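Priority: medium. Attachment 1 of 2:
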């Protein structure tokens, strides 16, 4: 790789941290413009962005990350493509970190030449894991079902969002939507409709977004997952997820009657 090659440089470290430039963006330019300690580092190509190659370097979980920023900052700043590609880089790095040994024979694994895969000496090959998830906006007339989740609850200013969950073995996506909504809120839904999807690198999910209509039931929250849930109309919304998330998009489309 030439030191004058123009590229975008994705430097990762710690837990979902990424190196950004002075403008809060993924560094772009030639290798010689990177910090001195990175100019000879073993970057790997993994994608392209507006005609420029994207190169990845994972400094590891124990790296000095004092100059790095949380991956979510790209999303909050509205840098959708930067967040998508940094998320892709993180999914690949997470795969490498979590597959150092073969799940079949226990032998050490190494990156396979020519593709993003890991292989052991016995010939067992694994590819990056993707976990399918559903995320769903439930409508009841002009109102939408929103919940405060325990995993990111703040008592002084709680954020409310739509319901989500992982797809289980043997069920299709529509069944997963109905099951997750009922398990978490006690609500039955029908008229389930697919809207859009979003890769979600925390750590390796693919969020598939749906809307559904309220059918029956009274709200009874699953205490292990939720703090509270309710139906909200557009004129009395709580704090919502940030723009750039599929959750926010589903909420806005649902309240606007576009989904």
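Attachment 2 of 2:
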């Amino acid at each position: 790789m030439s030191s004058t090659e123009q590229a975008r440089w994705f430097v990762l470290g710690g837990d979902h941290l990424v190196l950004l430039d002075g403008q809060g963006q993924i560094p772009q330019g030639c290798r010689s413009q990177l910090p001195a300690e990175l100019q000879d580092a073993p970057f790997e190509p993994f994608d392209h962005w507006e005609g420029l190659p994207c190169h990845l370097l994972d400094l590891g979980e124990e790296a000095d990350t004092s100059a790095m920023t949380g991956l979510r900052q790209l999303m909050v700043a509205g840098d959708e493509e930067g967040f998508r590609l940094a998320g892709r880089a993180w999914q690949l790095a997470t795969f490498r970190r979590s597959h150092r040994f073969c799940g079949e024979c226990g032998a050490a694994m190494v990156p396979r030449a020519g593709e993003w895969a890991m292989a052991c000496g016995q010939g067992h090959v694994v590819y990056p894991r993707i976990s399918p998830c559903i995320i769903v906006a439930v409508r009841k007339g002009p109102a939408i079902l929103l919940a405060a989740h325990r995993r990111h609850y703040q008592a002084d200013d709680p954020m409310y969002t739509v319901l989500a969950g992982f797809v289980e073995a043997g069920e299709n996506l529509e069944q997963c939507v109905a099951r997750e909504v009922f398990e978490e809120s006690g609500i039955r839904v029908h008229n389930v409709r697919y809207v859009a999807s979003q890769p979600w690198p925390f750590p390796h999910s693919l969020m598939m977004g749906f809307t559904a209509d309220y059918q029956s039931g009274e709200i009874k929250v699953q205490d292990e997952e939720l703090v509270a849930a309710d139906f909200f109309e557009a004129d009395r919304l709580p704090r919502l997820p940030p723009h750039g998330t599929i959750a926010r998009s589903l909420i806005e489309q649902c309240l606007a009657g576009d989904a």
